[in-house]
Request: fold
Amino acid sequence: MNTRLFSAMTRTLPRRVFSKLFHSNLKRFAIALAYFLMWVLPTVIFPIFLLVIFLFPPSAAVIIPYLIFCWWDRDTPHNMGRPSRAFRNLSIWRYGSNYFPVKLVKTVELEPSKNYLFCAHPHGLICNGVAYSFGSNIQRSERLFPGLNFRILTFDTTFKFPVLREYALLMGLCSASRRSMNNILGSEKKGNVAILMPGGAPEVLDAHPNAYVLQLCNKKGFIKVALENGSPLVPVFSFGENEIHSQYPNPKGSILRTVQEFIQSWIGIPPAVWYGTGFVIDFGPFPYAKPITVVVGAPIHVPKIENPTTKEIDELHSIYIDAITDLYYAHKDKYIPKSTLTIV
Reply:
């Protein structure tokens, strides 16, 4: 081997190996942080506050005013939120997005002179595709859809937990309440996008690989809100969202599913029993590194009707179901060819 070539390889190879390991670990850290904030922090934040105050009483001078602020600021999630461009542009979101990786696909241009209601499916466990596509600007959503401002709608419970609520608000998340949707879609300043997961919490329990079960047949509230505001409906499908986790079998009527639905009705959060991969072994709570492709379909024109009738709601609901079905089958073979779609 050429001496110069060998010398160059011995100098650059360690750097490449180190760089690869470094970036790989950053991706894992980004995912671990996201899952900690969503699943662990809400259950431990209040005990942590109490423990800190007990061990270090002066900390109460900071913690108690902050809790009072959270109560005083309780309307913000219903009033367009408090997004931070700097926070949405943090590099950590890039590492989290590249872990899968996540890809955002636009099929048509959207005019910034309107307010839109994006309806994203499936919900998955924590909507990773939607979160990285629209909760950060890593997918260049603001360039892909110039003039549009995105607000992801989530459980109102999210904003009941200190610290977690600040994280969510900085990302641009808002409450999924009717009041919140009307404030976004009814704003005189156009170019607002409310991103809703119509399947909601119940759809989480149906998130199994290669089986897309969409809870839509009895979900018509979002249709009524769209009609009241005259906001175009935009179907969005996250191919691969259900493939990044595995859930223990929980068919309708099973003991596990019955217990899950009872707990969900009690606390408002679906207690999914999932598993994925670990960072040291192949089994753990973290998602599999499988691609997620978020496809944004064509908008459905929606007339503004202040008091829509049941017939008008049903007609638009039927049109929407056809649109999301067509979007799925138009892209299924390219992204998740072995998957199936069921609308219940």
Observations:
- Residues 67 and 162 are 7 Å apart (CA to CA).
- Residues 3-55 form the longest helix (53 residues).
- The chain has one domain: 6-343.
- Residues 6-343 form a domain with the Glycerol-3-phosphate (1)-acyltransferase fold (CATH 3.40.1130).
